[in-house]
Design a protein that fits this description.
Layout lengths: L5 E4 L14 E4 L5 E5 L9 E2 L21 E15 L5 E13 L16 H30 L4 E2 L5 H38 L5 H5 L3 H9 L4
Length: 223
């Protein structure tokens, strides 16, 4: 299994990982490329961040009564492994894409904090959390790409099958390690954001200091 998505949970600075099932691995008959990503067999809806997307009430579909701490925001690394040599003795990590996703099935508005009269501000609050995770995903994308660009790694194993398996497991370990500092930043940024603006009475005043960041985020991308 490759790197799973990392879901933000409020009130914690520890990275709690929720494992997704349905890892897909394939190898072309004419190449030594393996495309790897994590998916869900039940086709759970995931919405990728774009500059024109805005959260709506209909996107909050978590109907559980208990507060499980989930906001429905996750970072999902996807990548390919390309193997080299007649005996597949080396590999590289290519086509890295760190996706910033929102899962409606996990998301709900905390009515204890945001009564219905404040729904508009609540949507802005959660959209801001999604925007902040987009900032982190872009930063992680740039810096991790630089660290793995044109690098090759040795494969252990007695045969091609063992080396393919080693490459998958070793790549997962490397991406997990490289993601770690960004996940910590991800959690800390979100927690600070929640402390700053998760108060309906003062929301508009406190939210104003984040608004320029979110505006720049949309100006920097053409999606």
């Amino acid at each position: 299994m490759i790197v799973p998505p990392y879901f933000w949970q409020k009130n914690t600075i520890c990275s709690k990982v929720f494992q997704e099932n349905g890892c897909i691995c394939f190898m072309s008959k004419n190449s030594n490329k393996m495309g790897l990503h994590v998916g869900t067999p039940d086709d759970v809806e995931k919405i990728q961040w774009t500059k024109n997307f805005r959260l709506k009430l209909e996107h909050f579909q978590n109907e559980t009564e208990i507060d499980d701490g989930k906001f429905g925001i996750s970072l999902l690394p996807e990548y390919e492994i390309e193997m080299f040599g007649k005996q597949l003795t080396n590999y590289s990590i290519t086509n890295l894409k760190i996706k910033n996703l929102f899962r409606p099935i996990d998301a709900k508005i905390d009515k204890n904090v945001w009564p219905e009269k404040d729904n508009y501000d609540a949507l802005l609050f959660y959209q801001g959390a999604f925007d902040l995770s987009e900032e982190i995903s872009r930063k992680a994308q740039t810096e991790i790409e630089q660290k793995i660009f044109r690098k090759t790694f040795s494969c252990k194993g007695r045969g091609k099958s063992e080396r393919r398996k080693f490459a998958q497991e070793d790549a997962q370990k490397q991406i997990t390690k490289l993601m770690a500092p960004f996940l910590k930043e991800f959690f800390l940024e979100q927690i600070q954001y929640e402390k700053d603006v998760n108060v309906p009475e003062n929301f508009k005043i406190n939210y104003s200091k984040y608004q320029p960041r979110f505006d720049r985020l949309r100006e920097e991308i053409s999606i």
